[in-house]
Amino acid sequence: MKLSAIALLGSLIACASAVQNLQTADKQLNISSPLLNGAYVAGQILPLSYTPLSSNIVLNVYLKGANVNESAIALNADTSNDPTSNVPIKVDNMTYYQHSINYAIPTTYPAGNYECIFENVATHTNTSIPVSLLAYVPPAGASSAIPTAVSTAPAVSETSIIIAQPSSA
């Protein structure tokens, strides 16, 4: 029984240490994701979570790497207090709304160190969060050839429907 309680306590401490709440220098935004120095994989999702603490915020989010040009993740990102599409958080009798963006990291991004930059255009404040990207690994059974061109058209699939006719026998 004691061993179970110790294991549970250890798990809770590990989970709590994985949660981050970084506040920007202008004190207008809390950033809970991506994690500081977190490792993410090209071809997968870079989760972004932030909570605006002020209505005076115009937010742009970028991803920048040494060998990759800065790419915009979100320009004029949502900072609204809309309870229908955002998670309300109460702090000291104030209600704030947490926002989330799931950025699909391009498979072409090379492994290396990157910065996720949260820019408050209204206050001219940037907050950079260092992250590491691991190289894209194609799924098992996928061709190892890298495509030279990517279609921007949505994937189209066709479905045939066969309607059985009653027999005349």
From TrEMBL:
Q: Which domain of life is it from?
A: Eukaryota
Q: Where is the secretion signal located?
A: 1-18
Q: Which UniProt keywords apply?
A: Signal
Q: What is this protein called?
A: Uncharacterized protein
Origin species, per record, is: Mucor ambiguus
Q: Supply the source organism's classification.
A: Eukaryota, Fungi, Fungi incertae sedis, Mucoromycota, Mucoromycotina
